[in-house]
Amino acid sequence: MAKQAYVYSGTDWVPLASEVTNLSSYQTKALNQFPYRNLVINGAMQVAQRSTSVASLTAGAYRTADRWYNNINSQGTWTQSVENDAPTGSGFRKSLKMLCTTADASPSSGDRLYISQLFEGQNLQQIKKGTAAAEQLTVSFWVKSNVTGTYIVEFYDNDNTRQISKSYTVNASGTWEYKTITIPADTTGAFDNDNALSFEVIFWLGTGSDLTSGTLNSSSWNSVTAANRAVGQTNLASATNNYWQITGVQLEVGATATPFEFLPAHLELAACKRYYHKSTGNEGFGTPGTTTQATMKLPLPVTMRATPTVTFGGTIGTTDPLVATKTGSSVVAWNSTVNEVGFYMGGFSGFTIGVFTYWNGSPIECSAEL
Length: 370
Prior knowledge:
Elements: E1 6-8, E2 13-15, H1 16-20, H2 23-32, E3 53-57, E4 61-62, E5 69-73, E6 77-83, E7 95-102, E8 112-120, E9 137-145, E10 149-157, E11 162-170, E12 177-183, E13 197-207, E14 222-223, E15 243-253, H3 265-273, E16 276-278, E17 285-288, E18 294-299, E19 309-312, E20 317-320, E21 324-327, E22 330-334, E23 340-346, E24 357-359, E25 364-367
Antiparallel strand pairs: 1-2, 3-6, 4-5, 5-8, 6-7, 7-15, 8-13, 9-12, 9-15, 10-11, 10-13, 11-14, 16-25, 17-18, 17-24, 18-23, 19-25, 20-21, 20-24, 22-23
């Protein structure tokens, strides 16, 4: 008797012959099991090393959920937070929220408001942009807002100053809605194969006439014309308590959105720490060279994208096993690499020269963001 081959359908093992009768279904199931197809990092908003809520925002920065940059240029005042709120039954538990606390109902021409993720060129080579074999891209996400209307997602090629924008509609107030957007391939302008900024996906929430006075560039990639970037965008800043939330963001090669790729927590965190690492407050070790100064090192948990900018805040402390915890007055980074941060601590007294000591102060922040 001939042996029957079986394949896993996603819910059960079934005969291979029955599956391949529907080739597109078979191919989709195979694709769904292909790892690391989501180019977005922290699309489920699970990692928030900096904070879970920051208020009174009027300028751009990374604030809460890792890898998500928010740009605010004279368009209201905002609270950004990571909420324990997501579409029921989706597998998501958290979302990123922008809440308007001071309105800007009539934006000036240069005003801007958006959330975006920035990408290294070396992580985008599978798109084959700038070649005859260039691929389409599809972004999918869940969104909720109390302000219905038209919103814009922009895809911006920083290496070649090209872009394309697509619109989506928030149909019902306060309701989670699933959106998918596919953009055409671009055979012009390859992404650089390096660790620098090459590409940005921008979720517009409001902007002035500088970016809305033309015709939305939605059919094909083109050189950037500012007036065509965000035409039709709803102004989320029109009233206080307006909000917009997003989760489950996935960007992948191809014309079809596949189910969201949930990574194990340790892998998602490691991917985020390539760009930003916040120590626990008791990492870092070294030895005093004098009774007042110590040379320290902080090993980084993953190789960072570039040599990080280091921020020391709050308590400058160390624990010398012979004299317990001491507090100093100064700390300066030195000789840092993508794998470790070096720093001098000074302003102490009574160090035991040459005896092992470790950092026991406020968390150290290391940033290699794009």
